[in-house]
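Aggregate trends can hide what the representation actually does to any particular protein. For completeness, the protein is quoted in full, as a sequence line and a line of structure tokens.
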Amino acid sequence: QRGYFTIDANIEKAAATIGLPESLLEQAYKTLSGGQQKLIDLAMIMVSPATTLLFDEPTNHMDAWAKRSFIEWLRKQSSTILIVTHDRDILDVVGTIYELKDRKLIEYTGNYQAYLRQNRVSTSTSIHQFEVDTKTVDKLKKQLVEAERKKLRCKANPNPFVPLVIRLKKQLAEIEDELEKPSAWIDQRSVADLKPDERKRYEKYKTTGLSLKSKHESTRGSGSTLLNVEGLSVGYDTALFQPVTFRLLRGEHMRLQGRNGIGKTSLIHAITDFIAGNESVTKCFSGFIEVAPKISIAEYKQHGEDEFRGKTLYEAIEIVLESCGKIVNEQVVRRTLSQYLFDPMADASKEFEVLSGGEKARLNLMKLLLTAPDIMILDEPTNHLDLPSIEELESLLHSYDGAVLFVSHDSYFAKELGGESVTLSAAVKS
């Protein structure tokens, strides 16, 4: 009655859905990588008989194929499901979105597209109301000053201006108690649909994501070849994927695709080690890599850097700035904190180990972007970023004149960046 005789099959089906090889199910949990453990935790929830399922950023460790399967699984569920996510592909299939903003929980009926439409209207309304209330406060303050002046001059007893002063103070206190600058974010496409006066108000109050600027200056012309990979196949004991060939040009965006474990990270390591002149941990089974002379490369990794462990956030930023040859002083460090959405005072003393996934992601992006390399390699850069920051990153990459090689299961991000795709296929075992 409880499904005892089908539990093994259900576990294997859940694991296959989210891209976990069946062979991993026989391994000790503690021997698995952090990403694999997260997927196992996810599979445990998927086979649970519970009527309410809670997920916290479930797609962060999935590949694009696994995410599509997971979304299909979500569509078929009769359980109540609550998901914390900034993944727009997941938000597209939910029935209700709750947004935590300005210490309030706001409900939007429908999926992500419905949210965008409703958010555009509610944000414009809240900005308009904030301006109306601000003007009302200014008007009441002027009236109060005038009433206080008349009260002091009045010799009558009782003083007729005393009740007026009391009433004005009460009105002012009530409005100021509720008056708070709204958090204003509207997606870039919806901003284009705003009326000119609405757009002007929005630009004044909008919530920005990462404050990023591309300062890369290159002597190489757009379209010049930076990286040439010819018939390359790498691995360890055996080749991980079939030989691939591609060229990466300046100004080009290229997406690297493949199932988890197919060798995307190994291919990236082979490229970065070759450019850096390091002996690669991967073995080349066929093909070769060519690069333009004197090119620089920077890699965004999903996980935190070992060099920051045991450091405070302030110390970590000092390390990043020094490695990029930047001026390092307290003013520069605190300004950099602010640009990457940290509180310059409250967050500076945080230990790296206690930073959230989003905070570590912003720190790693900082290290990448401050170097302004010829080639950026991005491994799931949108994991842990909020929607304004994702849009800011997309805008920066559009204005960036270097080349971008990226791995992402975010279909919105991939579509926005555009460019060619390289798909890795499993090597044929002899």
Notes: Confidence is low (pLDDT under 50) at residues 212-220.
